[in-house]
Every structure is written in structure tokens, then in C-alpha cells.
């Protein structure tokens, strides 16, 4: 368990989408050296800036279809970002829509 979770039991940890996208971009470049980088990052950014869980899931499925030929990258995305931080990504999209 993370020390922040132990010390601050009721704290909501916010994520910096700039740094998450930067990390995703670098990881994508490790797996694929191609012109697809910009297209995949556009899809990713569109996915994390959505207002509802339904929209998020639809765009996430599209993201997975576009990246179907790079399963290691899709696995990385699920293990590192999508599964552990799904509720925060959804919350971020909702907050962004209200601003």
C-alpha cells in the first residue's frame, strides 16, 4: 500500500493529465516507430477528456482497435493506467466538462 493512502485515508489523489499523456507517448514510441504516434495520441487524448463513462468506454474500445497490432502497448495501458486509475480518468473528464 502507498504511504499517501495510509497517512491520508480520505484523500482523493488527482492525476496530472499532461504527465500521463507524456508517459503514454514515450511508452508508445518504445513499442512503435511510425507515423501512427500522432493519431494514437489524438485518440488517447479524446478518450480521457470525455464526459460520461459510456463515451469513455466507446472511445477506449476504438483506442484498442486502432492499437490491436501492438498488444504489448494495450496491455501496458490497461495494467498501468486504465485499470488502476479508471475512476480518476472518468472523474477528470467530468470535471473538465464542467469548467
Keywords:
single chain; mainly alpha; 0% strand; globular; Protein FAR1-RELATED SEQUENCE
Describe the protein in words:
This is Protein FAR1-RELATED SEQUENCE. It comes from Pisum sativum (Garden pea). With 99 residues, the chain is mainly α. It has one domain. The protein contains five helices and no strands. α3 packs antiparallel against α4. The longest helix has 28 residues. The protein starts with a helix and ends with a helix. 12% of the residues are buried. The model has no long low-confidence stretch (mean pLDDT 81).
- Overall 3D shape: globular
Structural class: mainly alpha
Distance between the termini: 33 Å
| SS elements, strand count | 0
Number of domains: 1
Reported for the largest beta sheet, the result is: none
Low-confidence stretches: none
Task: Please tell me the overall pLDDT.
Answer: 81
Order of helices and strands: HHHHH
**Rg measurement, Å:** 14 Å
Estimated share of beta-strand residues: under 5%
Give helix % range. Answer: over 70%
Number of helices: 5
Protein name: Protein FAR1-RELATED SEQUENCE
